[in-house]
Amino acid sequence: MIHISFDAWTSPNHRSFLAVVGHFYDLRSNEVKQILLGFPRLLGSHTGENIASCFWTVATKMRIERRLGYFTMDNAANNDKALTCISDYCSELGIQFNAKERRIRCFGHVLNLTVKAFLWGENTNTIETTEALDDVDMELERLREWRKRGPLGKLYNCIRYTMKTPQRREKFEEPCRTYLPEGQVLSLIIGNATRWNGDHDAIVRALVLREPLEDYMAFVIRMEGKASGETSIANDILSGEDWQELRFMVEALAPFKKWTLLLERNGDAAQLSDILPAFDELLTHHEEVRVFHTHSDGSPSTHIVNSPNAAWAILNK
After folding, report:
1. Is the pTM of this model over 0.85?
2. pLDDT by residue (tens digit) across 99-156?
3. Distance CA 126, CA 124 (A)
4. Are 290 and 305 in contact (CB under 8 A)?
5. What are the extents of the domains in the chain?
6. DSSP letter assigned to residue 269
């Protein structure tokens, strides 16, 4: 049997493609192998029907429709529908194919959903939609939505403001040369709404550049003068407590970073014997983080208390 993993990708020129990878046991070499079976253009919306049709074109062209095994895909409803449609295609050829039985969840995607819930809460649809808009009239709404997400949202607004024009980036380089060794210059990193690694790297880089960023934002506020209201970047200035919470996020995500690196090995498929301990460790980790901050001295922010709960709920599901 040839087992399948597939995922949709969008190129820089905004064209969608479906990467279809086959995984199989080679009797001649006594090895598990994987190979790119096809990378066709995915036309239209990413519905289950369209994805299934695109995949079936690859399967029939490669003449493997009677050898299909198990499918690993992201945990999205359109992929559930795609498997149902593939089952219908198989049925027309007299091939037995139980869509629910053949569906395997992608653990990498489970990690991504869990960390996004930890960082932003369980629903990121609003900020993702707002960020996709270019209308100037939506700028205030965009700032509000990110600001609601706590210190990481405020940090995102500061980074986005700083990186928006070449002139601002050049001005930010001045305090960088003052604080970093030997006049070194580092750029801030803008995270994205799709993969958690970008958000993690953005926080790590911002912690390194805390002093230059604070100096630059103080300069910006002085230049704003009497500017005020919700459009002012002054609303996104990070306090000492905010920076402490950002550091807590990085520390809390260390086990996720470890398991992501361990399980993303190319050519060496992860086994259930790897994944089950990962689930156990991560569930226990969030339980301990939640208990620690609930019973710790001081007054932890609502975000610090709720984030592990949101992540635990997604991972447990």
Report:
1. no
2. 999 999 888 888 888 888 888 775 554 344 434 434 444 555 555 565 566 788 889 8
3. 6
4. yes
5. 2-105, 110-316
6. P
